[in-house]
Design goal:
With 326 residues, the chain is an alpha/beta fold. It has helices at 2-26, 44-51, 54-58, 73-79, 89-97, 144-152, 167-170, 184-190, 219-224, 226-245, 247-260, 267-280, 295-309, 317-320; strands at residues 30-34, 61-64, 84-88, 102-107, 114-119, 134-138, 158-162, 176-180, 198-202, 213-218. It has two domains: 29-110 and 212-320, Periplasmic binding protein-like II (D-Maltodextrin-Binding Protein, domain 2); 114-206, Periplasmic binding protein-like II (D-Maltodextrin-Binding Protein, domain 2), CATH 3.40.190.10.
């Protein structure tokens, strides 16, 4: 009889424990995160942090929602669909100039992957030879650095808006196009052109090595959810670290997310993307830690944006950057 009572008591305690755990789980504060583009290895660290339970271990629940190819992540902040988004540094400054009160809480990328690419067969060997040419540019944004490069060379081009395909370039419908080294450039190579058949003009080689992916939220969100945002940032960096050390696993996670979203891809391309994105995250000799925004990069982005868009407003670094790392 005593054994029966003992077993019954253990069962009750187990049930109480499980119910308590579920209640605690249900009460975790929630953060909705929106990357600035469709699912791909560019965002592997976030997926890994979610898959490995790093966010829940930190005491938050994170939902990852992607905008469509025609939607900008900033609109998800405005509508309240997302608490946190990823953005290029210069895109965030442009959004701030347009009245969106965003702040940077962590800088994931430390360098630029933007470049123009042209076929050598076109005869385009220098950036200035793009003068008067048709150049593909992303319809969904991310065009500030590309346009600043052109403006800095005092040349004029005919901008042709494109989505996420390289088909127009491959069919000679445009003379050149803006690409990310980790994405469209590799797509072009996978479409049949060799690297020695292409001429590239990296932004970093033209004084435009402005960091790209950072983590942003509205200033009001920062003020109201600072503890949750700190946990989000720390768990995200842990996710990126795990992805860097377990790349095959990270690609498995990425491919699963892309399959759910019905995004066509292949493992080789996503591996190329992950390797390149991880390289962009290395500060090098910048004198900053992972996840930290350098003031000099902020100033450079502000200067480039001001010159290319004729923006007179100046932003204060400490008003824009709200570091949460300890």
């Amino acid at each position: 009889m005593k054994n029966c009572i003992h077993d019954f008591s253990k069962t009750v305690l187990l049930i109480v424990f499980l119910l308590s755990a579920n209640i605690i789980q249900a009460q975790l504060p929630k953060i909705v995160f929106a990357p600035q583009w469709l699912p791909q290895a560019q965002f592997a660290g976030y997926y890994v942090a979610q898959e490995k339970g790093f966010y829940k271990d930190a005491g938050i629940e994170v939902e990852i929602v992607h905008p469509s190819a025609n939607e900008q992540a900033t609109s998800m902040l405005v509508s309240g669909k997302a608490d946190v988004i990823s953005l290029f540094l210069i895109t965030a400054l442009a959004a701030k100039n347009q009245g969106l009160d965003v702040v940077n809480i962590g800088q994931i990328s430390q360098h630029s992957a933007i470049m123009f690419v042209a076929k050598k067969s076109s005869g385009i060997a220098t950036l200035s030879q793009l003068n008067g040419k048709k150049v593909g540019i992303w319809k969904s944004g991310f065009d500030e650095i590309s346009k600043a490069m052109i403006a800095g060379q005092n040349i004029k081009v005919e901008w042709i808006p494109i989505l996420s395909t390289v088909n127009l370039f491959m069919m000679d419908g445009i003379d050149a196009m803006a690409v990310m080294k980790y994405n469209e450039y590799d797509q072009i190579i996978n479409s049949g052109l060799n690297e020695d058949e292409l001429t590239t003009f990296p932004a970093a080689s033209y004084g435009c090595d402005v960091p790209e992916d950072g983590i942003y939220c509205l200033k009001s969100t920062y003020e109201n959810k600072k503890p949750e945002l700190e946990k989000f940032l720390q768990a995200t960096l842990k996710g990126w670290e795990f992805a860097a050390n377990n790349r095959e696993y990270a690609i498995d996670v990425v491919l699963k997310r892309m399959k759910i979203a019905h995004q066509p891809t292949n493992r080789v391309h996503q591996q190329w993307m992950l390797d390149n994105v991880l390289d962009l995250m290395k500060p090098g000799n910048k004198g900053v830690s992972a996840g930290e925004l350098k003031k000099g990069d902020f100033m450079k982005a502000s200067e480039i944006l001001g010159e290319s868009e004729n923006i007179q407003q100046k932003y204060v670094f400490t008003d824009f950057y709200k570091p949460l790392l300890k």
